[in-house]
Design goal:
Number of helices: 16
CATH class: Mainly Alpha
CATH architecture: Up-down Bundle
Order of helices and strands: HHHHHHHHHHHHHHHH
CATH superfamily: MFS general substrate transporter like domains
Helix content: over 70%
Radius of gyration: 20 Å
CATH topology: Growth Hormone, Chain: A
Number of strands: 0
Structural class: mainly alpha
Number of domains: 1
Length: 394
């Protein structure tokens, strides 16, 4: 009975994410070209993407701590969804790039508010199913929306002759649906922490040392992982493809993300962090494909980029859930995401600058940072597996 209840909750939360991702991932697929139209430079786009992620991740420490302290997981999640989603269609009314950047950053702040509490609740439900499969299933539904959204704005751009305002306005629809779903979920699952069977934790104070070692490895991944606005900016500034095709490639990446999350989630529950090492090795090669290749390589590169994103949004989080007991999980997700965001900001800002200076150096930086992450993770993979096994026996 508990398993069925947990599964229904994960699916319902996944459907909420489907429509929310349809909203803001659709916007992210055209934010780069939109800023280019409004007169922003590549350095500005990279800085914006990095600052948005920095705020979007660093604020999660506060949000995660408050969710654990108050146990008000639902209230924090709902408020975050309102800010996250309603700021997106308002981009239609931004007449200059400075205001557009403010709204793009506000969208990231809204996501920062809701994510740690949402992830903690998701981990409560996923505990019954297997953390890898639970997070993977959620990510697959999430990325279904992230695939449909860019297709939606691509069609809007095609029909309206590249009118970006029309593309943003249509995103009011999925935003309202997502908000309605999260309010409905709150009404029928008011106490999600009861879904997870309480077990005695090996750690009574702080977080295990492996958690911090793992965090350092993933931080280097964030440092070298180019954000899509910069990739999209490159596609437009080099005239590699028409404007209405750029969202299609993002949709392809999101489809790759969702499929990878499902597969990696299942593999993770059976073989642990080996699945993550494999995914990160594959993702290592997206940089030269999207920044140095032609149209065909760009297509392959976006699939590879999507695989890496699928790993980040599913089994990277599932690993954190294994390290931390339920009552500390909101804070743990907040700390983890804040460090991730700090390194993402540094990497995005630097790569935006490097793009204007030398694309080859940008690609080299991306590969080196990801390679460091891969080596560090491979070095502690066996210890992580042993730690998980010890917890299960306990």
């Amino acid at each position: 009975m508990q398993l069925k209840k947990a599964t229904v909750f994960v699916i319902l939360l996944g459907c909420t994410s489907l429509f929310s991702d349809m909203t803001y991932e659709a916007a992210r697929s055209i934010n780069g070209p939109y800023l280019e139209v409004l007169g922003a430079s590549a350095t500005t786009v990279g800085w914006m993407a990095g600052l948005g992620e920095l705020l979007g991740y660093s604020l999660r420490v506060i949000s995660g701590y408050l969710s654990d302290k108050t146990k008000n997981y639902w209230a924090i999640t709902v408020v975050g969804y309102f800010i996250n989603l309603l700021s997106v269609p308002l981009l239609a009314f931004a007449g200059f790039w400075q205001l557009a950047i403010m709204l793009m950053i506000l969208e990231r702040v809204g996501k920062a508010i809701r994510t740690p509490a949402r992830d903690a609740m998701l981990s409560f439900g996923a505990h019954q199913m297997g953390q890898g499969w639970g997070f993977g299933l959620h990510e697959a539904l999430d990325q279904t929306g992230a695939t449909i959204g860019p297709l939606l704005v691509s069609a809007a751009l095609f029909i309206k002759n590249n009118n970006y305002q029309s593309a943003y306005i249509i995103l009011f629809i999925p935003a309202i649906i997502a908000i309605g779903l999260i309010i409905f979920a709150k009404s029928i699952y008011p106490h999600l922490e009861n879904l997870e069977i309480k077990t005695k934790s090996l750690e009574t104070k702080g977080y295990p040392k492996l958690y911090w070692q793992y965090l350092i490895a993933i931080a280097f991944l964030a440092l070298g992982y180019a954000d899509f606005p910069l990739i999209a900016y490159h596609f437009k500034s080099t005239n590699l493809m028409p404007d209405d095709v750029i969202p299609l490639l993002y949709a392809l990446a999101m489809a790759s993300d969702g499929i990878a999350a499902l597969i990696l989630g299942k593999v993770f529950d059976k073989s642990g962090t080996k699945a993550l090492v494999l995914a990160l090795f594959i993702a290592l090669f997206f940089g030269p494909m999207v920044f140095l290749g032609g149209m065909n390589w760009a297509i392959v590169g976006m699939v590879v980029w999507g695989i890496g994103m699928g790993a980040q949004e599913s089994i990277v989080k599932a690993t954190v859930a294994h390290f931390i007991p339920p009552e500390k999980r909101g804070t743990a997700f907040g700390v983890f995401n804040a460090v991730f965001g700090l390194f993402w900001f540094a990497g995005s800002a630097l790569m935006g600058y490097l793009y204007d200076y030398s694309i080859i150096i940008l690609v080299a930086f991306s590969i080196i940072a990801q390679l460091i992450a891969l080596v560090l993770l491979a070095a502690i993979s066996g210890k992580i597996q042993q730690y998980f096994h010890t917890q299960q026996i306990r």
